[in-house]
Amino acid sequence: MKYPRDAFIRRLLSSCPVLEDLFVVKCRGDNVACLVVRVPSLKFLTVRTTAEVDYHQGLVLDVPSLEFLDIVDYTDGFCLVENSMHKVVEAHLDVTYSHPQQLLASLTSLVQLSLCLTTSMDAHFDGTIFRQLEQLKVCTCETTEWLDLLMRLLKAAPNLRFIVLELSKFHGIRTGDPILGWNQPSRVPECLLSTLEYFDWRQYGGTEEEKQVARYILGNFGRLGLATFYPKSTNPVKNLQMLKELSMSPRRSSVCRVEFCGNYSSVSK
Fold first, then answer.
1. Tell me, what DSSP letter sits at residue 119?
2. Which of 128, 140, 135 is nearest to 113 (CA)?
3. Signal sequence span per UniProt (predicted)?
4. Does the N-terminal or the C-terminal CB of the chain have fewer CB atoms within 10 Å?
């Protein structure tokens, strides 16, 4: 549908004073360059920008009662938060915003977060602490940046209990980009030592950098009970060899169990 202008959507939403759940699909030619959502009663918001949209999109949020947020936007646009969103407990963000800091800084009450940012290096969390965050999922599609993003989040979330690393089925690894070396942090994040209990790495490739990251995780998780690796390769011989190497990695937690799940008999140690 093509709307008269951006203001039409603002007026439409303002006429819904008890609206609690909103699902928006932004399409090419809809004549809405900046979506403004000012709905005090809104609790659930999902925004999808279709792949055909090839120009920058804007999103402005004034939703003080929001509890759930889900955004997919690959237009290199922006998101501006006008008022606190301290009630949001679950967020799924798959965006290419050039400056996502303000959006992330407004979500400090999160308990569950799923994140894919192509601008990970710019997503600094200085002063932002996710004290209530317990479940974190980070997409590994951007091999030059996701590791930096993960380490920043670990430092900012002292009470994490569950981490998932996964390459989204809708994404791919960029070709031609340099892969950054693994730089071990000088200080182990608090959550690794005291709160983290479960770790899943899906589509684990077994590259040298990935091995170093996995060894670091296994060697520093103080309370980790289970670490599960799902290999990317479909070669059973390669998988078995690759994952047996990890089974012999030193572990800080005496109760930590490592499981390997692939196209061979499951190996557990």
1. T
2. 135
3. none
4. N
